Inverse folding.
């Protein structure tokens, strides 16, 4: 995601502003999950990794050592948590699980290469923005207000002069579209 106000958000986070943390969570959690899921072939583990990243972000908010690139910082946190998970001792696996283990090994090796990681992050970001561009105008406006600007549905409805139900309907359509569009991108990793 583009960090238009990262420095300001980081200052709010460092001061313990819960609304800033909630905004960061709403802005980044879905994309960080997508990144984690591309390396870890387990929905639950990928979700758990993202949760741990946000818990650590909150716990260490006062010591944040970043000034403007919150997106890169969060991406690296997810990458490192994925590496930690992939480094854990492996149990004995059956022949059927061997294929899945081979994929995990490939993902582990890709994660260790910073150049590859930056390329993956860049491609993912481009894919997300392309997917947003393909949304119908009304869906795009609602999606940007809720997911990028961090507004609640009621706030987005007020700004766009539509009902909350209409916001919910547009969000359902937008999220289905994003899942389909990004599934194509992620199929390379899964």
């Amino acid at each position: 995601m583009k960090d238009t106000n990262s420095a300001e958000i980081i200052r709010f986070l460092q001061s313990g502003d819960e609304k800033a943390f909630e905004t960061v969570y709403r802005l980044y959690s879905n994309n960080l999950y997508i990144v984690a899921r591309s390396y870890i072939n387990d929905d639950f583990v990928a979700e758990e990794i993202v949760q741990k990243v946000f818990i650590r972000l909150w716990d260490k908010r006062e010591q944040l050592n970043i000034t403007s690139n919150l997106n890169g910082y969060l991406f690296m946190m997810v990458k490192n948590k994925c590496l930690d998970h992939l480094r854990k001792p492996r149990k004995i696996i059956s022949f059927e699980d061997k294929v899945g283990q081979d994929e995990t090994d490939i993902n582990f090796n890709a994660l260790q290469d910073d150049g590859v990681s930056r390329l993956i992050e860049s491609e993912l970001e481009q894919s997300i923005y392309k997917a947003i561009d393909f949304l119908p105008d009304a869906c795009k406006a609602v999606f940007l207000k809720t997911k990028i600007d961090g507004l609640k549905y009621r706030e987005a409805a007020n700004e766009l002069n539509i009902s909350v139900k209409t916001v919910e309907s547009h969000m359902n359509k937008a999220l289905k579209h994003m899942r389909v569009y990004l599934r194509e991108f992620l199929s390379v990793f899964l």
Notes: The mean pLDDT is 78. Residues 157 and 166 are 8 Å apart (CA to CA). The radius of gyration is 18 Å.
